[in-house]
Amino acid sequence: MLMEHLNASDPRPVIPLGHGDPSAFPSFRTTPLAEDAVCAALRSAKFNGYSSTVGILPARRAAAEYLSKGLPHKLSPDDVFLTIGCTQALQTILTVLARPGANILLPRPGFPYYEATAGFCHLEVRHFDLVPEKDWEVDLAAVEALSDENTVAMVIINPGNPCGNVFKYEHLKKVAETARKLGILVIADEVYSHLTFGGALPQILENTPSDFFLKIVNTLNESVEICYDKIKEIPCITCPSKPEGSMFVMVKLNLSLLEDIKDDTDFCCKLATEESVIILPGVAVGLKDWLRVTFAIEPSSLNDGLGRIKAFCQRHAKKQ
């Protein structure tokens, strides 16, 4: 929808600050080792046919060994169920949990695909809020109030999408204690850890040099600082907390400072037309009159995009 509002006569490049996949940008390209591992797995002819429904054993063994780091106990390959990305993972677990009359607790704001999949599985959706004034912590009192004998699980996205938060250990401990008291499962969505698959996984997990991940983290750190500092220069936009993870930040619109913008969707559509910048309206992730900004983009483009947003807001500011 937002792309339809772009002005074809604008000679400037479109700045995408609403995307969820940064791999198109040079700074965030996958390591060549991972690309080579995928090609090698394909050419080996060992993994080109049907595999076990839970994933091939070498990949599950590699995942178990990797995920066991820092745990007081060791995971086995039997503890691992590999899926074709996050979409299949959500479909699988929600289908397993679904039963007549069951409900699931989802964070607001959150990842919209959970709602769609829950609806497909006939699970009732109940939302608990993430509190922006507390670095987007879970409102645990709301979780307890929403839960009943038909609640099957609650979802935690950490690092957060769309908020960019990272829950502290003490808060995660409280989440676990609350879930244990209520007798419900916690679905821990940690999708921003690693995205790999199949026969290439052992080589990727074992051999990817740590400096590759350090380079990505350093680039994201630079982008976070740019994003946070530039947003503070825009009076009609407030950022409640600096992002600590993932590649997103949620910012609040103060519509009272703008004279001809009716809501977050209107803001994003007009921004696309006038400045060729794409950002996601908050209503798409459950928070009306907020915006989700993706900072996983080349720093120079991020600077340009945020500068255009500032110019847009100045142009639409209410006259004093």
CATH homologous superfamily descriptor of the largest domain = Type I PLP-dependent aspartate aminotransferase-like (Major domain)
Domain module tally: 2
Query: Which CATH first-tier class of the largest domain would you pick?
Result: Alpha Beta
Q: What structural class do you assign from the helix and strand content? A: alpha/beta
Helical proportion? 25-40%
**Shape, per Cα inertia axes:** globular
Q: Termini, distance in Å?
A: 33 Å
Uncertain stretches of 5 or more adjacent residues: 194-201
* CATH A-level architecture of the largest domain: 3-Layer(aba) Sandwich
Q: Beta fraction of the residues? A: 5-15%
On the 0-100 scale, what is the average pLDDT?
A: 89
Description:
- Pfam families: Aminotran_1_2.
- GO terms for molecular function: L-tyrosine-2-oxoglutarate transaminase activity; pyridoxal phosphate binding.
- The protein is an alpha/beta fold and 320 residues long.
- The chain folds into two domains: 2-29 and 209-315, Aspartate Aminotransferase, domain 1, CATH 3.90.1150.10; 32-189, Aspartate Aminotransferase, domain 2 (3-Layer(aba) Sandwich).
- Helix content is 38%, strand content 15%.
- The chain is built from ten helices and eleven strands.
- The protein has helices spanning 32-43, 57-67, 85-97, 113-120, 140-146, 169-182, 201-207, 210-231, 264-275, 299-315; strands spanning 15-16, 103-108, 124-131, 137-138, 151-157, 185-189, 237-238, 248-253, 277-278, 280-281, 290-294.
- Strands 4-3-2-5-6 form a five-stranded mixed β-sheet. Strands 7-8-11-10 form a four-stranded antiparallel β-sheet.
- A hairpin with an 8-residue loop joins strand 10 and strand 11 (290-294).
- Helix 1 (32-43) runs antiparallel to helix 7 and helix 2 packs parallel to helix 7.
- The longest helix is centred in the last third of the chain and has 22 residues, at 210-231.
- The protein is globular and about 65 Å long.
- The two termini are 33 Å apart.
- Mean pLDDT is 89; it is low at 194-201.
